[in-house]
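Continuing the series of single-chain predictions for the mutant panel. This is the parent chain; the variants come on the following pages.
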Amino acid sequence: ASRKLDGVRCIIRKEGDKVTAYSRQGNEFTTIQKVLDDVALIPGNFVLDGEICLMDENGNEDFQGVMKQIKRKNHTIANPRYVIFDFLTLEEFDTKQGTATLEDRYINLQGCDLTETDTLSLLEQHPIESDKELANMITEADKAGYEGIMLRKNVGYEGKRSKNLLKCK
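Parent structure:
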């Protein structure tokens, strides 16, 4: 499980020297060049799935702020944060299926050195062992003012809406 972020969903594809960012609907984002430059430094070909956020001084997302900037013409967002929650091979993404579990994909993502960037971060994932643990996490998220919790089953990638991903409020 992880906290539910309040940003703009963004898929970033890196293939060779080409790095491109898209919305879920396939529209290209042209305002996050700082993020794309940092992704270009990560070796290999892959697809990242995450959220573009603007963070305030307390580390909370500014949804209205990112929405005002993400689609502006001839604009680069000054301080974007790309919070990554999945790491896929090009084949997994293109075929919309994969056998590597969420845990394995997350371990591969942890192998990427994100410490040298101001724009990239990894979303913390926590294994949930019981209903009580989940209830406590939801309560803590509510107290912190988060939108909720995302509960993800430890299964292979599915490139569509799935019952293996659940938003808990």
